[in-house]
Structures are given as C-alpha cells and as structure tokens.
Amino acid sequence: MAHLAIVVPVLSDYDALRVLLADIPPRADVELIVVDGGSDARLAELLAGRANVRLIRTSPGRAIQMNAGAQASDAEILLFLHADSRLPGGWDAALRALPVTSVGGWFRFALDDDAWQARAIERGVAWRVRVLRLPFGDQGIFVRRSTFVRLGGFAAWPLMEDVEFVRRLIRAGDVVEIPLPLRTSARRWRRDGWFSRSVRNVALVSLYFAGVSPVRLARWYGGAHPS
Questions:
Q1: 87 falls within a domain
Q2: Which residues have a Cβ under 8 Å from the Cβ of 112 and sit 6 or more positions away?
Q3: 111 CB-near residues (< 8 Å, 6+ apart)
Q4: Which of 21, 102, 132, 137 is the most exposed place for a label (fewest CB within 10 A)?
Q5: In a domain, 214, yes or no
Q6: Residue 137 · residue 115 · CB < 8 Å
Q7: Is residue 203 part of a domain?
Q8: Closest CA relative to residue 185, chosen from 1, 10, 20, 9
Q9: Cα dihedral sign for 217, 223, 224, 227?
Q10: Could you tell me the CATH number of the domain that includes residue 79?
C-alpha cells in the first residue's frame, strides 16, 4: 500500500500536468492518480511508463473527479493537487513528518509571478487562512484516508467543494499548515486582472456564506472557481 496518493483532477490541463510531473519522481510509496474529466487522449501517452501512476476518466466536475481518485486508492494520506500547482522542495518529507494527531491540512499559498501584486495577494491569502481558517484547494489539501472516509469526501457541487470540505476537516480534528510554498499559476490573475480576479473570488465566497447555493453561483459566474 502506498503511503501517499496524489490526486490530480484535470480538464484540458495537458501542458500544466506535464510540468507538474517533474515535481513527482516515481517512487514506490507515492501513488499518482490523474482523473481526467474530459477525453484527452494524450494523457495516456504522457503517463505511460511511469511507476505507480493511474489514469481515471470521469464526468467533469472537480469534486466528482477528486472523489473518484480517492476511491481508487488505499493510501494512508491523500493529497488533492491542482494540475497548475508546483510542489515545493521537501513536500514529501513534510507530509511524512505530520503529527500523528493531525487529520490533514494544506500548504502555504504562493503565486509563480514576480509582480508586486502577486506578493500582495499572497499576504491577503495568508491573512484569510490565519484569521478566517479558510484555505482554498489551490493550497493542496491533504487528509488522512480514514478522515476522508469518515467525512464522506467532497460534496458534489460545481463550486465551493473545497471550502465546504475544509470547514468540515477543521472541525474533525487537528489540522496543519505546512509552511512550504505551493506555487500556483498566476495565469488567471494575469488574464482577468490582478485585483479584479481577487475581488471576484471574495464576492463568490461571500455570497456562498450568505446562503447562495453553489449551483446558482455557478450559473451566475459561468462555472468560474475561486481556486
């Protein structure tokens, strides 16, 4: 049984996944599960020949894909990772050194851009996580398998599945923020505008906490996701 399974939901993410693979050297105690929500035939060729790699195809939807990936593994720890994230050096040692009392946690948020706006957004996210205890999926959510099963996995929502799951995870026991920076692509911020994207994210989360359903939010925002 692998000690750790990395579950990566993808949808038209071939190029990002190719880069991410460089951070995950083949090893016996780490299983990589790529869950394709589309039908990208190139993925099988990209993953061919790598040890401990599994490709699963499902209907699209990040929650659906992550739940399917978790179900396909019996690893002790599950790490849910976005394809456009880059794992920091020492990530595997940090996960192996988790306190036995912890049920899960996340990494520190970082953006792969040198712009001052990126540093400002990182500070804002650090405040949100520290004060509001509200990390998003782009921080690499990890959880012990026993806890994931007990919590029933991710809610099959089109948006906010990471927020809803993390809130239950925090209530389930001790959580850990690994201080290593998990770098996320800043392409969405560059495309939408640094602060326009951040304001939109705040609006989405605020409306969710005000009681607007994720289904309605997805209709309003065209399926856009805050992470």
A1: yes
A2: 86, 183, 184, 185, 186
A3: 118, 121, 122, 183, 184, 185, 186, 189
A4: 132
A5: no
A6: no
A7: no
A8: 20
A9: positive
A10: 3.90.550.10
Structure confidence by residue, pLDDT tens digits, 55-104:
999 999 999 999 999 999 999 999 999 999 999 999 999 999 999 999 99
Q: Is the pLDDT of residue 1 over 60?
A: no
Report how far residue 103's alpha carbon sits from residue 77's, in angstroms, rounded to the nearest whole number.
9
Render pLDDT for 123-173 as a digit per residue (tens, 0 to 9): 999 999 999 999 999 999 999 999 999 999 999 999 999 999 999 999 999
- HSE-CB at 66 with a 13 A cutoff on CA atoms is 27
| C-alpha of 11 from chain center | 14
Which tokens sit at 100?
A: 């036995």
Residues 169 and 149: their CA atoms lie apart, in Å, by 11
Q: Residue 213 domain-assigned?
A: no
Give the count of domains, the chain. 1
Residue 224's pLDDT is 66
Q: Residue for token digits 């309003």? A: 220
Kindly give, in sequence order, each residue whose CB lies less than 8 Å from that of residue 13, ignoring residues fewer than 6 positions away.
83, 84
What does the pLDDT look like over 28-66, one tens digit per residue? 889 999 999 998 999 999 999 888 899 999 999 999 999
Quote the domain boundaries for residue 95. 4-186
